[in-house]
């Protein structure tokens, strides 16, 4: 008999945070609000992330259903990332974070973060 997947515990905030936890996922999702981007475009938009970490974060976001990865069979291969419907539903949360940061963080605080 197949085992059931473990049920996630905790409140809705905890479950949401488990999907977007870490420094990079929220930034990747925010950058994808502007539309479909290729891997190297994301790397240029987030210069402090390593290639390995970006790959890891994109795989987790795809596994959680927040982004869609589209591979085009051509030479050289082309891969594009876009927000899924589920990922797009985080837009109000991401924009609220941006607005809070704009209102509450000085430019020097933002640089130190």
UniProtKB/TrEMBL annotation:
One Pfam family hit: HxlR
Keyword Iron applies: no
Keywords of the record: DNA-binding, Transcription, Transcription regulation
Annotated InterPro entries: HTH_HxlR, WH-like_DNA-bd_sf, WH_DNA-bd_sf
Record flagged with keyword Transcription regulation: yes
Domain of life: Bacteria
Domain HTH hxlR-type: 11-109
GO MF: DNA binding
Name of the protein: Putative transcriptional regulator
């Amino acid at each position: 008999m197949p085992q059931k997947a473990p049920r996630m515990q905790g409140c809705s905030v905890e479950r949401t945070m488990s999907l977007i936890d870490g420094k990079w996922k929220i930034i990747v999702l925010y950058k994808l609000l502007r539309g479909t981007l290729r891997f190297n475009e994301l790397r240029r938009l987030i210069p402090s992330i390593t290639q390995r970490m970006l790959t890891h974060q994109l795989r987790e976001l795809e596994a959680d259903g927040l982004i869609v990865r589209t591979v085009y069979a051509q030479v050289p291969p082309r891969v594009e990332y876009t927000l899924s419907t589920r990922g797009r539903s985080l837009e109000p949360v991401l924009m609220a974070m941006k607005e809070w940061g704009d209102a509450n963080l000085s430019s020097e605080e933002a640089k130190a973060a």
